[in-house]
Known about the structure:
The protein is an alpha/beta fold and 379 residues long. It has 10 helices and 19 strands. A hairpin with a 5-residue loop joins strand 10 (186-187) and strand 11 (193-194).
Amino acid sequence: MRSKPHIAVIGAGAFGGWTALHLLERGARVTLLDSWGPGNSRASSGGETRIMRATYGPAQPYTELAARALKLWPKYERRWKRQFLHRTGVLWMVSSRDDSYDRGSLDLLWQNGIKFQELSAAQMKRRWPQINFSDVTWGILESECGYLDARASCQAVVEAFITAGGTYCQLAVLPQGLENAPLRALPLSDGARLAADFYIFACGPWLGQLFPQTLGERIRATKQDILFFGLPAGDSRFSDATLPVWGDHGQRFFYGIPGRDRRGFKIADDTRGPAFDPTSGERLVSQATVKRVREYLAFRFPAMKGAPLIEARICQYEQTPDSDFIVDRHPRMNNVWFLGGGSGHGFKHGPVLGEVMAELILNDGEPSPIWSLRRFTGR
């Protein structure tokens, strides 16, 4: 490898932006590309907020990643003198149906130094009387977790990357010839070609479109409806000063972020939606989803019954079949890497995956088997 390799990173979202920054900080020459800009409305990293949590069930790598992320986000906040992580706490409401996911999370939370409390239903009722806990048997409160500013942090990462000497271009990579080994240069939307030593594709739901032969249906974009409801005037019970971020494992998995900065009370059904084209799909919220979420809101947060829907938006998950990330080389090109498959839970891990990818590229490392493409082929 050259002493200062040139690395092209395609995608300036949570995965690509942080990867470009970490590579630059380690001495590489880096060119970062994005079609519509960091945190744009079509990106999986778009929108205002994402949850920062560490509860992930048993036998998985993501609690450890979250623990590292809880160190890296404050590090860069101090460096940039900006806040992106809001430590409201994250409350997991567990029903009596099946608590294996939540119960199986406790050992890993403890092993990775995540501060948490195991709460009874009675304790939660006393602490948050604005929530109806009638079918909840116990809960987990991750006291140092909360939510992240998504769009703003993506933009801050790219700004820091440019300030530190990185090259950023708002251009699209065309799919022509990308699957033909060897890849010597990227065809760009302005007619130019970009040659580099390594190419890292961190372009979220577009990965399968750029590499249909290699990735195809292994990255599937799904349409996800996000709703924001207006808080009662002068009522702080549903603001982030009073209420934690929450996840509710009932018949469906609902999650939400309390009201903040006049954007309203965020709530979403985590059920995977239909296939969605991230480029040209019209971002219209399903009325069936609105009805279902309103019914849930009236049940779980009774004082919010009839609250006005003040904002709605469509995001998309870049879903893999097993919800694990893809971090691996192209099977036929050692200088081409894939970083994606956030599957709705990847944003918080951006700073850590940036570290991971920088180490893999610069030290010729081998990716974790859990994120390897071989898991889909058995080879």
